[in-house]
Amino acid sequence: MSEAPPTIIVVDDDISIRESLEGLLRSVGFQVRLFGSVAEFLAGKLPEGPCCLILDVRLPGQSGLDLQAELAGADIRLPIVFITGHGDIPMSVRAMKAGAVEFLSKPFREQDLLDALGVGVARDRARRQAEAAAAELTAKFEALTPRERQVLGLVATGRLNKQIAGEIGVSEITVKVHRGQVMRKMGARSVADLVRMADRLGLAPDGP
Amino acid sequence: MELDGRADTPSEDGLFRAADGALADTEAELRRLNWALAAYGRSSSALIHFQTLDDLVASICGAIVAQEEYVIAAVGLADSGPGKPVRLLAGAGPALAYLDGLNLSWDESLPEGNGPTGRAIRSGESLIMRDALTEPMFAPWRERARPFGIRSSVTVPFRRDGRVVGVILVYASRPHAFGTKELELFSELGSELAFAMSVAEDRAQLKASEAARLAAEDAAREAQAELARAGRLLSVGEFASSIAHEINQPVAAIITNGDAALRWLARDPPDLDEVRAAIERMSRDAKRASGVVARTRGLLAKSRTDDAPLDVNEVAEEVLLYTADERRRSQVSVSTDLASGLPLVRGDRIQLQQVMLNLILNGVDAMKGVNDRPRWLRVRSALGADGEVLVEVEDCGVGLDPATSDHLFEHFFTTKDGGVGLGLPISRSIVEAHGGRLWAGPASPHGAVFRFCLPVAALAAA
To answer: A27 in contact with B at a CB cutoff of 8 Å?
Structure first.
């Protein structure tokens, strides 16, 4: 599965800063989107591939820290690298506590910025992959019949086929058939694999 | 109860206690009754809808004199001040001029306090003066009343909280014009009036307390804004931070552009178009930074003389730099149209900066409430028709109120929350001290434009 190239989104009201960042970021192979204000950024759509946001702290209208809070509130987990011309410690502490990747004062060392963006993009990529995997797993689980889900839940709690058969009132043979179906549909390579999937799906063992 | 037939016998004080003055003429009685009802109806509607007490009284008096034989209807209030004057609130009727300059009083010790009005107020009872020609008590006013055709009158006191506070005065063009029905009507109107007065007072008190609350809030806001303003004007720290920011931005951009240029150059093959673009941005940003430094130097070099040759464009740019933070905060974009090659003017740089600063901050303030259009400020300079140097600061804010624009340059006149009303007058006196003029006008389609002109320096400074 080929992934779209990473995109860096720049929100800064100073055109000199925006344009210089665009030149630098394209030179290292990023796609770049520039915005002069939070409002402009919010009016646009997020790019497809992994992204990282470069955000000026002090912006006209809504500040960068406001945007950070707003994105968190909307559960948009976009990694943020803050840049500021008036960096102060309380501000950077606040930004970092709220999950920023990095807080850089202008002028910043190019390597510091690129390192931070590398971390941000990797974080976003990992999050996207985890979300995609979780979505896939959920889709597989939802493709199971109610009986198969029941069997999966009981397998995950470590019950033997015989116990399961007794518990749900079918023959042991039938349990074996269900179990085989579950393994196949979920794409599990082993029982241990299946148990891990059940765990990730939140079907944690509720008994001893 | 006196009957009308016997009522011409004067009472001991020469007046008649208001009493049953029923007329024998039933038809006239009916006619009057109808009128009375109409007058009362009109007044009642006025009582419900009145805006101010004066309006209400005027409307009641108007309703009374709608009856042709009544030539004056007026309402007076009993004042407890020296001489106990009766202050006329309002009146109506063709003979109203009779009351002009008439001293009415309810002070027993004064001659004018012993007419019908004074006695009615003191006694709290209505008094009828049946015939102006024969009534002894009316003798002091008889000659005065004659040209007005006044022949009889009634004085009806009204009370608030049991105390007489005023009278309704009605004068008629024929003798014996007042009977029981009229007295009842006027008494009724009097008590309605008293009620309306207390309503009006309650309203006024409510208004006053509301006004006091608003004034207190205003004062608090003003103090706060003034503090903020003083801080803004005096804070060297903020000024320095503004300058630092202005320089730091292009410097940061130059560094990043340099890094980018090196990376494009290090590619195989090098992307020279990108390198060129980055270098062009570096050059542009370097000029921007150097401009900031040059203007800062001008701003900080406090000229010791107050009469140096000056470039108004420099002054404008220095102040625009100074106000960059404020404009950013207020989301005001600024455009400049500064004429090149302007002659120098002579003057005090700091003082002219103050003028510019004030005009620009005024413009920014005027746009604070503007949310339906971009907020912009335009600063222009030009050579005037008579060779003087002209500077304009135009905003697209709320504009000048024609009702108050005449007062713009008066001390302590302000239309702004937290304004002190000194900025424009001081600015004008500074400009005038420089031999120039400062004036204001409306901008089209929104806002205001402030202009000042300064004479050019006759000779270069020695």
So the answer is: yes
**Do the chains contact at A107 and B260, CB–CB below 8 Å?**
no
C-beta of residue B447 within 8 angstroms of C-beta of residue B397:
yes
Task: List the CATH number of the domain containing B314.
Answer: 3.30.565.10
pLDDT by 10s per residue, chain A, length 208 = 466 789 999 999 889 999 999 999 999 999 999 999 888 899 988 888 899 999 998 887 788 888 999 998 888 889 999 998 765 677 888 888 888 999 998 889 999 999 999 999 999 999 999 988 999 999 999 989 999 998 998 888 888 889 999 988 889 899 999 999 999 999 989 888 888 888 888 875 554 4
For residue B161, the domain's CATH number is 3.30.450.40
Say if residues B153 and B170 touch (Cβ distance below 8 Å). yes
Least confident of B6-20, B50-64, B114-128, B273-287: B6-20
Domains of chain A from N-terminus onward:
7-133 (3.40.50.2300), 143-200 (1.10.10.10)
Which residues lie below 8 Å from residue B23, measured CB to CB, with a gap of 6+?
B4, B29, B179
Q: Do B256 and A60 touch (CB under 8 A)?
A: no
* Domain coverage including residue B395: 304-462
B311 and B272 within one domain:
no
Which pLDDT belongs to residue B236?
39
Answer whether residue B340 is part of any domain.
yes
In a domain, B230, yes or no: no
> B-chain residues within 8 Å CB-CB of A24?
256-257, 259-260, 263
Question: Are B295 and B309 in the same domain?
Answer: no
Q: Single out the residue in B282, B301, B320 at which a domain terminates.
A: B301
* ipTM of the prediction: 0.75
Classified as helix, coil or strand, B398 is coil
CA distance B373 to A141: 54
Whether residue B210 lies inside any domain: the answer is no
The answer to whether the Cβ–Cβ distance between A17 and B256 falls below 8 Å is yes
Q: Taking CB atoms and an 8 Å cutoff, what residues of chain A touch B274? A: 23, 26-27
Look over chain B and give the mean of its residue pLDDT values, rounded to a whole number. Answer: 78
Is residue B138 located within the same domain as residue B43?
A: yes
Interface residues on B facing A, Cβ-Cβ cutoff 8 A: 241, 244-245, 248-257, 259-261, 263-264, 267, 271, 274, 277-278, 281, 284-285, 288, 328-329, 331
B124, B186: one domain: yes
Q: What sign has the CA pseudo-torsion A54, A59, A62, A65?
A: positive
- Separation of alpha carbons B102 and B148, rounded Å: 14
Is the domain of B61 the same as that of B160?
yes
B122 located within any domain: yes
pLDDT at B40 over 90: no
Q: B46 and B187 share a domain?
A: yes
Position with higher pLDDT, B7 vs B98: B98
Answer whether B415's CB lies under 8 Å from B422's CB.
Answer: no
Q: Which two tokens stand for residue B70?
A: 């009544």
Position B24 pLDDT exceeds 70 = no
Residue of A21, A61, A16 whose CA lies nearest to A41: A61
> Into how many domains does chain B fold?
3
Question: Looking at the structure, do residues B160 and B39 belong to the same domain, yes or no?
Answer: yes
CB contact under 8 A, B285 and A16: yes
Cα–Cα distance measured from residue A53 to residue A70, given in angstroms and rounded to the nearest whole number: 14
| φ, ψ at A51 (rounded to 5°) | -135, 165
Together in a domain, B173 and B273: no
Angle at B164 between CA B187 and CA B74, to 5 degrees: 55
pTM above 0.80, yes or no: no
Domain end, chosen from B257, B281, B301, is at B301
